[in-house]
Amino acid sequence: MAIKKAEQPGSDKTKYAIEASQVGKSYGDLRAVDRLDLSIPEAQFFGLLGPNGSGKTTTLHMLSTLIRPTEGTLSVAGYDVVKSPVSVRRAIGLVFQESALDRNLTVDENLRFVGALYNLPEHVVRERSQELLELFDLTTRRHARVGTLSGGLRRTLDIARGVLHRPRVLLLDEPTIGLDVINRRTIWRFIERLRQEENMTVLLTTHYLEEAEGCDQVAFIRKGNLIGQGKPKMLIQSLGAYILEIESEAPDRHAELLNPTLGTPVQEGNRLMFCVPNEDFPVAELQRELKSAVHALHLRRPDLNDVYIWLNRQKPRTRR
Ligand SMILES: Nc1ncnc2c1ncn2[C@@H]1O[C@H](COP(=O)(O)OP(=O)(O)O)[C@@H](O)[C@H]1O
Ligand SMILES: [Mg+2]
Questions:
Q1: What pLDDT was estimated at residue 4?
Q2: pLDDT score recorded for residue 291
Q3: What fold, for 16-231?
Q4: Average pLDDT across the chain, whole number
Q5: Cα 249 from Cα 271, distance rounded (Å)
């Protein structure tokens, strides 16, 4: 990670909401999370990205003290998850893949219930609920039973529920999974609003990589290993100006043909993907040259999915 920790006391020390040092979780021979290092500054919006089974939920479960790491150290809001689990729990808000709402209760009742769980005074719960319902456009539904809400609204309410006690760190596990594109966008917009209002650190996981472009920083994991990290824009820019996709009956021949100008492509069956380094690249010329020889030729802007694909070309870390 680019941010360096200042060691000297009294200096401008960056405060980290989450710090993981060589954190691992093994189930028998399986390393669900493999020596993960993370330093997430306070108030950052951080995306932990990776496909199904890559270790995202396991990481969040360790951060929320639900399971213990089998190696390394992990702290949240300055508290060690093993030594001070109660302080960690107090500092975090959790929204897991499974909804924590009672479907038979109304929106209001669900929020009041959380307030009681956290021992918040009634007037605080009332004010906070009001604010959150407005923030999330839920005010008109406050007396509706949760079971009658759409999937998108329920997820929204789950997030409101997770932040009612004003946690310093909010952990969201795939908040947009199973939602349609419109609801997914809405959820992202609400998370953004919430961040602006509350200034809290948000750690979110998703396997819809293209969604995470609004994060301040993202980390990619694969089979429990950290394989890349950075600001989304920088990571995308580092690939180049465009991705050129070619479908060809003779992909090997075309890969060889274009290699001198565009480097080694990523190959998936008959499809080749090249990074086009800059805007000035003579794409039209290339298109004319290749048009008759290939099935399809497509030029598009790179996104975080491409970053992941290119990161995957690198060799996995070898075990010590
Ligand atoms: N309790 C468990 N026992 C055994 N294996 C587990 C357990 N929990 C998770 N795993 C395995 O750990 C890996 C990472 O899982 P998970 O963290 O759920 O991934 P993700 O959330 O990225 O989809 C997977 O291979 C999963 O099968
Ligand atoms: Mg998961």
A1: 46
A2: 74
A3: Rossmann fold (3.40.50)
A4: 90
A5: 9
Residue pLDDT, tens place only, 162-206: 999 999 999 999 998 888 888 888 888 888 888 888 889 999 999
- One fold for 16-231 and 240-301: no
More confident residue, 248 or 31: 31
Q: Which of 23, 26, 27 to mutate to test the pocket of ligand 1 (most atoms within 8 A of CB)?
A: 27
What's residue 194's pLDDT?
83
Instruction: Tell me if 302 CB under 6 Å of ligand 1.
Output: no
Assess whether pLDDT exceeds 80 at residue 143: yes
Contact 175, 48 (CB under 8 A): no
Q: Map out the domains of the chain as residue ranges.
A: 16-231, 240-301
Buried b (16+ CB within 10 A) or exposed e, 277-311: eeeebeeeebeeebeeebeebebeebbbebbbbbe
Q: What is the 3-state secondary structure (H, E, C) of 15-39?
A: CEEEEEEEEEEEECCEEEEEEEEEE
- Is the CB of residue 53 below 6 angstroms from any atom belonging to ligand 1? yes
The CATH classification of domain 240-301, taken from the options 1.10.1660, 1.10.287, 3.30.70, 3.40.50: 3.30.70
